[in-house]
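Example 9 (inverse folding). The structure is encoded as follows.
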């Protein structure tokens, strides 16, 4: 690991609700933070009004946080990068950013998703795009967190994952605060898969709620959803115990039950019979589960793992089944052992 300078600037890439929240959290730790904002007009408003009125309204920006839409300006003098674009844009954003990353930088992925083209997790996408000669340390940050609650300093806990323990511990120290507790893990694949695939299960839980199926159905869905995620993860080489932790079960329970979950909200409206296009047009943020569902099904095929919930959600998103048909297909599958 290359040691980062103590006073090194931080660059947060992506100014959605989560990116802005993490940038604010780091800035409040007396760190100078540059925040890259895709929308130039939003960047100007954030500088002028000291608020992200589009994705995180009502939350004041810390004085140490400096929004800008110029990528070179944001990356200048930065030794630590936090990557938070939507998953479907991570590869394209980092193709532009990679030449600006100094040798020995620390790059922390905080995006939850699967690259549809390569079926890679986000940290693997970063490894693909950032030249190996730069010797960048790449880590992941994941866990049960709603941006709105973290921004209000409501106690939360997450996991910093890196293949090297010292890198994971560096990320832990970077983000940890009295109300934002960070644990470490070396199972990067398991941590990222849990964070990505739970969004698909949150869609399914939302569909159950939209159909007004009650608590029994939701509990069964969450439990079997966790089993589905863990079975795929283990087949891909992740550790089973990771999925019982914050980035697995913790994040799954949060997104399947919390009213602030975008994926759960989309699922509820699908269960109520609303067309997907109409639902998405009414949102200014990304529901990652919509794009991850296809990747989950593709990974299941690749690793020969049954993914019944993901398959029905993918079929529902593509208009091939109705919500009632999807549930009926799940409930009438061949009987089997829970193990």
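The amino acid assigned to each position is listed next.
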């Amino acid at each position: 690991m290359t040691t980062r300078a103590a006073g090194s600037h931080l660059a947060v890439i992506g100014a959605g609700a989560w990116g802005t929240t993490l940038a604010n959290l780091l800035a409040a730790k007396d760190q100078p933070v540059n925040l890259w904002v895709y929308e130039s007009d939003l960047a100007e408003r954030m500088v002028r009004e000291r608020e992200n009125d589009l994705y995180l309204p009502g939350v004041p920006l810390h004085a140490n946080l400096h929004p800008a839409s110029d990528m070179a300006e944001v990356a200048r003098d930065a030794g630590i990068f936090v990557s938070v674009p939507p998953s479907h844009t991570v590869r394209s954003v980092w193709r532009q950013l990679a030449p600006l990353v100094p040798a020995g930088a620390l790059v922390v992925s905080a995006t939850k998703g699967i690259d549809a083209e390569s079926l890679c997790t986000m940290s693997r996408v970063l490894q693909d795009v950032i030249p190996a000669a730069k010797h960048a340390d790449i880590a992941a940050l994941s866990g049960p967190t709603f941006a709105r609650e973290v921004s209000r300093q409501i106690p939360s806990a997450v996991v910093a994952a890196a293949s090297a323990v010292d890198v994971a511990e560096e990320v832990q120290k970077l983000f940890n605060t009295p109300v934002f507790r960070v644990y470490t893990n070396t199972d990067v694949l398991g941590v990222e898969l849990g964070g990505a695939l739970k969004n698909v299960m949150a869609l399914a839980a939302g569909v159950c709620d939209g159909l007004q199926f009650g608590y029994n159905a939701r509990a069964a869905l969450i439990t079997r959803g966790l089993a589905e995620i863990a079975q795929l993860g283990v087949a891909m080489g992740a550790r089973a115990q990771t999925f019982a932790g914050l980035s697995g079960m913790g994040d799954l329970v949060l997104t399947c039950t919390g009213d602030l979950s975008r994926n759960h909200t989309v699922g509820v409206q699908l269960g109520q019979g609303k067309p997907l296009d109409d639902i998405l047009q009414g949102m200014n943020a990304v529901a990652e589960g919509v794009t991850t569902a296809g990747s989950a099904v593709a990974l299941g095929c690749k690793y020969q793992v049954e993914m019944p919930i993901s398959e029905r959600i993918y079929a529902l998103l593509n208009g091939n089944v109705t919500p009632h048909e999807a549930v009926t297909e799940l409930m009438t599958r061949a009987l089997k052992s829970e193990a």
